[in-house]
Design goal:
327 residues, alpha/beta, Helicase, Ruva Protein, domain 3, two-stranded parallel sheet, 14 helices, 7 strands, 50% helix, 10% strand
């Protein structure tokens, strides 16, 4: 599908697409910390790790980037993108990803033996094996039990298989359940991804524009950034949706820079409803409460000053009030 604004803005490709693309990876503080946790996990040669977070925080891109960053001479990797399968299908997927030959007629026990033999042989060569599972919240209890068995594969000194779970918040809620303690107690590294902070929003937008081939023909003005941040709450996927709509709106107006007016017009679009949490305006928000407290404190200070200098008979006023109350 041809995107009309690409040529107009001098872009080679869509800068704010929704498909996970490692080429557009932006190293935010939270993504950097997640990768550091995973590197620590490998250094410690542990069996299970978990990276989790809300939808739209870049878990899929992070999982692929992590795999691509590994030295292929040291690590064998298997990436499971869709874990909706039973334990035998899961085992077959792992064998396929690792390039281990097998016959569909083989029993699960025989396939497991092939995997175990492969892991031991690779370990003797000085190579470690990693299984990365995306969308891990979709794993069935049956398959989780099989993953627990896989995590038992080890020598006398260390694990010969490392398993990393990438999932949404529901994954953690499942792991907290009593019947899941057999797997949760084996997870040695857990890290929660967070949204981008305010200072990262402008950097993120500029980064994606440059990756898409921008030569500076389109820009996002400073007054547009707070609106994008407040609407997106720092979630990269939501930022992409808003920014893409802004470029379309800007193209329709033959403009060159996205300002606050463009963003406001885009945010009024009802089709953005599922992606943006819109809060009803009310005076009694944090700002409103702060104003009320400030006014009350200032009035109290004023009354104290007036009483000290006897400018008005404050004490007599209070006495009269209490007399009225007492009847």
């Amino acid at each position: 599908m041809e995107i009309p604004y690409l040529e107009y803005f001098g872009l080679n490709e869509r800068p704010f697409g929704l498909t996970p693309d490692a080429n557009f990876y932006f190293e935010s503080q939270t993504h950097r910390e997640a990768l550091e946790h995973l590197r620590f996990f490998l250094m410690q040669k542990e069996g299970l790790a978990c990276i989790y977070g809300d939808v739209g925080l870049g878990k899929t891109v992070l999982s692929r980037l992590f795999i691509d960053s590994l030295n292929k001479n040291i690590y064998n990797t298997a990436l499971i993108l869709n874990p909706i399968m039973d334990d035998k299908e899961f085992l077959q997927e792992v064998l396929t990803e690792l390039g281990i030959p097998y016959d569909n007629n083989l029993s699960k026990k025989d396939m497991f033996s092939r995997l175990e033999g492969f892991l031991l042989e690779e370990y003797k060569k000085g190579k470690e094996t990693i299984i990365v599972i995306d969308e891990a919240q979709l794993i069935s209890d049956e398959t989780f039990e099989f993953i627990r068995i896989l995590s038992n594969l080890e020598t006398d000194k260390e694990k010969i298989l490392h398993i990393i779970l990438f999932g949404q918040q529901e994954l953690i809620e499942r792991l907290k359940q009593p019947h899941m303690r057999y797997i949760s107690q084996r997870i040695s590294v857990i890290y929660r991804l967070r949204p981008l902070n305010f200072n990262e929003i402008n950097l993120y937008i500029t980064h994606r524009l440059l990756k898409a081939g921008s030569k500076g023909f389109v820009q996002f003005e400073d007054n547009a950034i707070p609106l994008i941040y407040n609407a997106s709450k720092g979630y990269p996927r939501t930022i992409n949706i808003i920014c893409d709509r802004c470029l379309i709106a800007l193209y329709s107006k033959s403009g060159r820079s996205v300002n606050d007016k463009i963003v406001k017009s885009v945010l009024k679009d009802e089709s953005l409803g599922p992606f943006i949490e819109k809060k009803e305006k009310t005076f009694f928000n944090k700002k409103g409460i702060y104003i009320l407290v400030t006014v009350f404190v200032l009035l109290l200070i004023l009354l104290i000053i007036l009483s000290i200098f006897n400018i008005i008979p404050v004490k007599d006023i209070f006495k009269d009030i209490f007399k009225l109350k007492g009847g």
